[in-house]
Amino acid sequence: MTVLDTNIVAIVLPTIAREFSASFAEIEWVISTYVLCFASLLLPAGAIADRFGRRQVFLTGIAAFTVASALCGLAPSARTLYLARALQGVGAAFVLAPALAIIGHTFHGESERNRAWAIWGGMMGLAMVLAPVAGGVIAYALGWRWGFFVNLPVCGLLVIAVLFWVDESRDEAARRLDPAGIVFFSASMFGLTWGLINGQSFGWSSQSALVGFAVGAGALLAFIAAERSQARPMLDLSLFGIPRFVGAVWAMFAYAACAQVMASLLPLFLQNGLGNSALNAGLLMLPFALAMLAFPYIGRRLGRWLSSEETLSVGLVVVAFGSMLIALAAFGDRQDLALVGMMILGSGGGLLNGETQKAIMSSVPRERAGMASGISTTARFSGILLGFATLSGILATTTRTMLGSADCTSQGMSCTPSGFADAVVAGDLVKAVRELAPSAQGAALEQARHAYLAGFSTALITSAIIAALSAVAIHFLMRGRLSR
């Protein structure tokens, strides 16, 4: 449900932008507030579930997710929507963390536990495939609000299932809560996201952006200090003294920031850049989604010949190649080439998705497995959050630069309205040309689309460089053996 919701929203996002005449910053917050709260609260949600009862916390999370979904569907403005999305992210964290613990507690034998995790992974993969198509159908047939309302009956059925089939469990020796760690980690992620989103809106040297980066950096330092001062911290920083573990965690972060994040960015490219409808964009996402689903299994077969670090490095190189191919397709306005690039990008992402968690868990002593699992999940969603904010910021900045002053064009037209560039970046081309004379609208639309494609191309090139450099770094970090 959490994966399905995230990817459905990515498909309907351009429709939401047009209905609310939203700025690109507001559109970014619709994704970012959800992932921010999700990423920030996963570790504490797990600790709270262990202490107060996993079934009880799971039901509380479902209730919060249900209420938030209804508020999202009823939202009268973009601001109301992204605030409701923040609550939805809180609910998602308190659904996912106890769900993982419930599976671990319920299934004890190795074979039945492996089967349970295989079913879990299969459902997550199925959600990746179904979400784009479901989002396209919902936007076409029912309207974007049903992208949120569809959660309500699912949550109702889930509550009934939990009441009948899930027993209460808790960890009597659960670690105490870490309020300072929770606050400082959340503040760090929020500050960095604030700086990245406001940087593309108001300029990277603007006071708003600089304050965000300063708060993020300061909170990160405070978080490190708070964790070092505790006997049983939320995050054991001593694990980062193991180079192999650092490499595996970085692989998870890079996978999320360069591959998994594309589930949110590619629908914008397909609709705003290539001019597809929401329904067509959902169908065109299938090469990416199917490759993400299939390649974890191919990665397991490759594991007979490749080590874990080799698989991770190969996966990131494939992601880099796919990203460069899509960037080339965006530059040349080639949808056929873009689909090939999306399939290659998804293939690299699938290799990484099947290997990153295993690499992290095998890089630490067995008794630290619980902490490593929490770090792994947090690295994944932090990567999605910061990857989306960074790449969409590059997209917006490049698009505005391509449009010059954002007030005038150079294709035989007079001045365009002052909000032209903002509307183009947000993907609302109808709003962008509304104040232009009919004779100038065609040229303005063409210029806007090329600027957007150039912005997306630059963002994908940046992502490819990050993935390639990460592949090299991971190769060197993970060559050594595990230190115990």
Structural class: mainly alpha
Strand fraction: under 5%
Mean pLDDT: 82
Number of strands: 0
Computed over alpha carbons, the radius of gyration is: 22 Å
Shape: globular
Helical amount among residues, as a percent range?
over 70%
Largest sheet: number of strands, sense, barrel closure:
none
Q: N-to-C terminal Cα separation, in Å?
A: 38 Å
Please, how many helices? 19
The ordered string of helix (H) and strand (E) elements is HHHHHHHHHHHHHHHHHHH
Low-confidence stretches: 405-418
Oligomer status: single chain
Could you write a compact summary of the structure shown?
The chain is built from 19 helices and no strands.
Question: How does this model look, in words?
Answer:
- The chain is mainly α.
- The protein has helices at residues 2-20, 24-52, 54-74, 78-106, 110-141, 146-149, 151-165, 179-202, 207-228, 243-260, 262-273, 278-284, 286-302, 308-332, 335-361, 369-402, 420-426, 429-432, 438-477.
- α2 (24-52) packs antiparallel against α16 (369-402), α16 runs antiparallel to α17 and α16 runs antiparallel to α19.
- The radius of gyration is 22 Å and the shape is globular.
- The model is unreliable at 405-418 (pLDDT under 50).
